[in-house]
Design goal:
- With 74 residues, the protein is mainly alpha-helical.
- It contains 5 helices and no strands.
């Protein structure tokens, strides 16, 4: 019952949790293409802080920002 955007944001969160650079970048692209805004993607990354820790969240933020920059959607 979850729409594609929600599924992609959840998968992004999972990718952040396992600290997978490739998956974080891939699911960022997928979330954006399914209609997520850059703000929604960044919010998903920020939500990871309390579960995965600050260093892991900051690494994911860097990966997400590089995708946003390559797609010029910052």
């Amino acid at each position: 019952p979850l729409d594609e955007k929600c599924q992609d944001l959840i998968k992004l969160g999972i990718a952040i949790g396992v600290n997978s650079k490739g998956a974080v970048m891939s699911h960022t692209r997928k979330a954006l293409s399914s209609g997520a805004t850059p703000e929604e993607v960044i919010h998903a990354v920020l939500l990871a802080m309390t579960t995965t820790g600050f260093p892991n969240m900051m690494a994911a933020m860097g990966w997400v920002e590089s995708v946003l920059k390559e797609q010029s959607v910052e």
